């Protein structure tokens, strides 16, 4: 037997007999052998005791390599399984995943694991880590594993998906499991880990399957890295719009009445209404004609547009009306706005024709993907479509981009960049097949950005199926990269729907369609704002802008109501807290609810026609006349709460 191992630098090592990945590492350098975590054999992660006996390309991973972290976390997940099975012999296991977010293991038993049991499990893991017991890579007959897991319905189902007679598995003492690419050679290398949380998860992500208990955890090679990650997770938890939405009573989602279908409570609805009115006023001022179109449309329209062919899996099933008509909950608004355009004969004098709508759409998101307001099944898109002549494309593009930048300024959105999203010419399934159209539109989009002198990145494969687009990518408060706004050029839909206008020459011509979204969907945008502001919305957006607290309801209640009326008639959102509670409690409650202004009214204020003002986040109290306060809050709102 002779074979060659090719290393990442291109050098080769020849061997006459088999060798493990770990011994290969030691043969390269003693220090590498000690630092080795796992190997990558022909692009696949393998443990250190994996046997090499054929030509292969091999890279040795140490804790300096990014993929080594996945190996560490998978090993922690495996050790968790082993100790959990020992503590709960009737426990069944579903899927397990280790990635950049940490790891999770799906579990099931009659009395599901609760979050209060995690410290006990973590202590058992620490004991296993201290023992430094060997984690052994073994190949086991599939039939043997089927016998071992015959009472575990989830493992049995996973085994059915494996074609080979021998299965790669790992053993720790008398515990064995499969489905891991590579694990560490012993438990002693898993030193810095933490079990984080518990959540429900449907088996294989299907709502028709049993609900399992998903245990989340993470692991790092260094304690400092774990501490930093836990600090980051605490910040994420503090900013999570779902938590804030519950604490401030903004919205709720109840799977019992419809998963992924948010109910907007009074305060959340107020924030949304302010945003919607702002957007509509901005767009109307910019020349858009706002319309209302139905959420239902004949399925044939989506077949013509191409949505049925490209997005069928993300659309709800069509509704058979019984007379041959098939209606579909719309996944996009563009075919609806096309009908607005087609309803009249259009002339070049009508162009650009700007149509906008806060259009409700529906997407069939899988249950496992739903998340608060960010991933929902019903959403309202700040949508707009402009129909232009060819020579109007670049000027309209610049106009839309200016509108987006003005909106960003008012919402204080500063962390973003521009991405030109092109098609992947090799992906003929996803993208409309017309090379000339794609080359023309991509060149036009790039030219518009170059003319404006703006920096951008280019991304192949991120275009819409009908045309290239400019995506404006923002950083969320949790550090995720997300598309906030988009401008898309479309030559395809005008062709498919036969759109025309009469030109100066009296002949029919084809318009270009420009799709654009300023702030995306109301749901995702308000989730974004909630996390960015940490629930402390600027005064112009806050659902309650001022909370009035009378020191004594009987003595000062009438004056409190007078102040409320004075503020309310000027359009400010104000409430009086006249509950029979101590004043200190009511002030703390106002701060907890993150109300921008708390006004305390006692004898001095009533006698002097003044208010005692406390801004959110401060302990400072300032007494001022009611007129001065009205001027202050008015300036705060009109400036979009920007510092002057």
UniProtKB/TrEMBL annotation:
* Catalytic activity of the protein: tRNA(Thr) + L-threonine + ATP = L-threonyl-tRNA(Thr) + AMP + diphosphate + H(+)
Compartmental location: Cytoplasm
- Superkingdom as given in the UniProt entry: Bacteria
Q: What is its main location?
A: cytoplasm
Where, in this chain's numbering, is Zn(2+) bound? 334, 385, 515
Which residues are in the Aminoacyl-transfer RNA synthetases class-II family profile domain?
271-538
Q: Which cofactor does it need?
A: Zn(2+)
Tell me any Pfam family this protein matches.
Answer: tRNA-synt_2b
Residue ranges constituting the TGS domain according to the UniProt record? 1-62
**Family the entry assigns:** Belongs to the class-II aminoacyl-tRNA synthetase family.
Q: How is the quaternary structure described?
A: Homodimer.
Would you tell me the protein name for this molecule?
Threonine--tRNA ligase
């Amino acid at each position: 037997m002779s074979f060659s191992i090719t290393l990442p630098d291109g050098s080769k090592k020849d061997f006459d007999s088999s060798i493990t990945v770990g011994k290969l590492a030691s043969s390269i350098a003693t220090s590498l052998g000690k630092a080795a975590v796992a190997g990558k054999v022909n692009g696949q992660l393998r443990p250190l005791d994996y046997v090499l006996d054929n030509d292969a390309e091999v890279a040795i991973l140490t804790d300096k390599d990014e993929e080594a972290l996945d190996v560490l976390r998978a090993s922690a997940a495996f050790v968790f399984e082993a100790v959990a099975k020992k503590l709960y012999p009737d426990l069944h296991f579903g899927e397990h995943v280790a990635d950049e977010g940490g790891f999770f293991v799906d579990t099931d038993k009659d009395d599901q694991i609760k979050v209060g049991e995690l410290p006990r499990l973590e202590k058992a893991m620490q004991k296993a880590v201290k023992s430094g017991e060997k984690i052994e890579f073994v190949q086991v007959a599939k039939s043997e594993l089927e016998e071992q897991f015959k009472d575990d319905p989830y493992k049995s189902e996973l085994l059915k998906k494996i074609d080979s007679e021998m299965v790669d598995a790992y053993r720790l003492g008398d515990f064995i499991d499969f489905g891991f690419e590579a694990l560490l050679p012993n438990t002693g290398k898993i030193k810095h880990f933490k079990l984080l949380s518990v959540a429900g998860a449907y088996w294989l992500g299907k709502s028709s399957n049993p609900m399992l208990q998903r245990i989340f955890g993470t692991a790092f090679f260094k304690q400092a890295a774990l501490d930093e990650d836990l600090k980051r997770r605490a910040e994420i938890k503090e900013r999570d719009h779902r938590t804030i939405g519950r604490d401030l009573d903004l919205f709720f989602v109840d799977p019992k009445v419809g998963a992924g279908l948010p109910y907007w409570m009074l305060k959340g609805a107020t924030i949304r209404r302010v945003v919607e009115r702002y957007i509509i006023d901005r767009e109307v001022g910019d020349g858009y004609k706002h319309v209302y179109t139905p959420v239902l449309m004949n399925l044939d329209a989506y077949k013509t547009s191409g949505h049925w062919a490209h997005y069928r899996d993300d659309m709800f099933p069509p509704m058979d009306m019984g007379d041959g008509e098939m209606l579909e909950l719309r996944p996009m608004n563009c075919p609806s706005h096309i009908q607005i355009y087609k309803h009249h004969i259009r002339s070049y004098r009508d162009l650009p024709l700007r149509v906008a709508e806060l259009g409700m759409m529906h997407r069939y998101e899988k249950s496992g993907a739903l998340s608060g307001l960010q991933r929902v099944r019903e959403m309202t898109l700040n949508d707009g479509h402009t129909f232009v002549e060819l020579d109007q494309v670049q000027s309209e593009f610049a106009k839309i981009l200016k509108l987006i930048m003005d909106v960003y300024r008012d919402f204080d959105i500063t962390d973003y960049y521009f991405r030109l999203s092109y098609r992947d010419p090799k992906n003929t399934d996803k993208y409309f097949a017309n090379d000339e159209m794609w080359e023309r539109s991509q060149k036009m989009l790039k030219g518009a950005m170059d003319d404006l002198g703006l920096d951008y990145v280019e991304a192949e494969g991120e275009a819409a199926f009908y045309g290239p687009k400019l995506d404006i990518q923002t950083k969320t408060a949790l550090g995720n990269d997300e598309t906030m706004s988009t401008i898309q050029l479309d030559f395809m839909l005008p062709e498919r729907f036969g759109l025309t206008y009469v030109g100066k020459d009296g002949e029919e011509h084809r318009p270009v369609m420009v799709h654009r979204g300023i702030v995306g969907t109301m749901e995702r945008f308000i989730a974004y704002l909630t996390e960015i502001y940490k629930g402390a919305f600027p005064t112009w957006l806050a659902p309650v802008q001022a909370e009035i607290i009378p020191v004594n309801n009987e003595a000062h209640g009438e004056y409190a109501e007078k102040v409320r009326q004075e503020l309310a008639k000027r359009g400010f959102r104000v409430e009086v807290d006249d509950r029979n509670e101590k004043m200190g409690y009511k002030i703390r409650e106002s701060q907890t609810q993150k109300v921008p202004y708390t006004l305390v009214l006692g004898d001095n204020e009533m006698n002097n026609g003044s208010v005692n003002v406390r801004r959110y986040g401060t302990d400072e109290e300032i007494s001022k006349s009611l007129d001065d306060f009205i001027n202050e809050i008015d300036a705060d709102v009109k400036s979009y709460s920007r510092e002057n």
